[in-house]
């Protein structure tokens, strides 16, 4: 899955490989972000139906960590995906807020790119 996300970011959004961070540890070493690109963190899961609770529990730490390294005023977004579904989150006054859900339509990959575009912050 990591390879597919990397390819999506590179081919779909022009991310340079050197801009992508894989398995970046949090500042306090309490966890790691699977993929980071600028102010966007991406968590890879095998089945979001089973692992959404884990995402909701960990994503605030990932977003807070990513926002420490971002420019002031820059929005930090988090995505969680199992390849079939994408969930999008942000922190609003320190609280995790769901900002979107996308169920992948394999017949229309361009819709995924359109949905992702405003969420990605290189």
Describe the structure.
The chain is 34% helix and 32% strand. The protein has three helices and six strands, in the order αβββαβββα. A six-stranded mixed beta sheet has the order 1-2-3-4-5-6, with helices on both faces. The longest helix is centred in the middle third of the chain and has 21 residues, at 48-68. The radius of gyration is 13 Å and the shape is globular.
In short:
With about 120 residues, the chain is α+β, with helices and mostly antiparallel strands. The chain contains 3 helices and 6 strands.
Counting H and I runs of at least 4 residues, what is the number of helices? 3
The percent range for helix content is: 25-40%
CATH-defined fold name:
tt1808, chain A
Number of domains: 1
What's the pLDDT, averaged over the residues?
Answer: 90
Unreliable parts: none
Please give the structural blueprint.
Blueprint: H1 2-13, E1 20-25, E2 32-37, E3 40-44, H2 48-68, E4 77-81, E5 85-92, E6 95-103, H3 109-116
Parallel strand pairs: 3-4
Antiparallel strand pairs: 1-2, 2-3, 4-5, 5-6
Which key phrases capture this entry?
globular; 122 residues; tt1808, chain A; 34% helix; single chain; six-stranded mixed β-sheet; alpha+beta; 6 strands
């Amino acid at each position: 899955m990591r390879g597919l996300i990397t390819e999506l970011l590179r081919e779909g959004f022009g991310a340079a490989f050197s801009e992508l961070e894989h398995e970046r540890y949090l500042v306090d070493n309490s966890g790691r972000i699977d993929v980071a690109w600028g102010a966007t963190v991406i968590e890879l899961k095998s089945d979001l139906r089973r692992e959404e609770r884990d995402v909701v529990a960990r994503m605030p730490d990932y977003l807070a960590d990513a926002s420490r390294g971002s420019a002031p005023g820059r929005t930090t977004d988090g995505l969680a995906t199992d390849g079939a579904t994408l969930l999008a989150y942000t922190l609003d006054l320190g609280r995790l807020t769901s900002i979107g859900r996308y169920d992948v339509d394999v017949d229309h990959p361009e819709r995924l790119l359109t949905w992702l575009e405003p969420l990605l912050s290189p």
